[in-house]
Amino acid sequence: MARRIHGRVAEARSQQDNEQWHLLILEELIARGGRRESRWRYYWIPQVIAFVYYQLSWLLYVLYPAWSYRLNADFEDHAEHEYMTLVAEHPEWEEEPFTSAFTADYGSFDSSGESEPATRGVVNAGAGPELARLTFLLPPCFEG
């Protein structure tokens, strides 16, 4: 049982780190573009939403884990579509070399477009075991 708990904690930490890299790299891209974003709209409101989402996800996991996994699967599906849209809106990233302060942690890629998870069709590369457990759930709600 201890190994199973340790495995789930390690898996969750890996997923959390992967999502953090995505946010940091996107933040770098925005800063490199010279665009100043409203701190209120693009930092504080997302922080509040993330806090509420985390609490909801945790509560669902305690009550009925399948609901929590389902919510996260829908969220990941939606995020993947948003990443794909973002990359499609910026074809110039395919020609732009990938340079990042996080290369050592996230990976080295030939272009900025390639570094985005959406170009690989993977939002969370560490989600394999989690997604494997989702096979009994309905398809994502955010299709199309």
Provide key terms for this protein.
65% helix, mainly alpha, single chain, disordered C terminus, 144 residues, globular
Write down the overall geometry: globular
| Biggest sheet details | none
Topology pattern, helix = H, strand = E: HHHHHH
> What is the number of helical segments per DSSP (H or I, 4+ residues)?
6
In terms of structural class, how would the helical and strand content be classed? mainly alpha
Structurally, how many domains make up the residues?
A: 1
Overall number of strands:
0
Q: Strand fraction band?
A: under 5%
Note the gap between the termini: 40 Å
Report low-confidence residues grouped into runs of 5 or more: 117-144
Helix content: 55-70%
What does the average pLDDT come to?
Answer: 76
| Rg calc | 17 Å
Structure description:
With 144 residues, this protein is mostly helical. Helix content is 65%, strand content 0%. The chain contains 6 helices and no strands. The longest helix has 31 residues, at 2-32.
What's the layout of helices and strands?
Blueprint: H1 2-32, H2 39-63, H3 65-89, H4 103-106, H5 112-115, H6 128-132
Helix pairs in contact: 2-3
Brief write-up:
This protein has helices at 2-32, 39-63, 65-89, 103-106, 112-115, 128-132. By secondary structure, it is mostly helical.
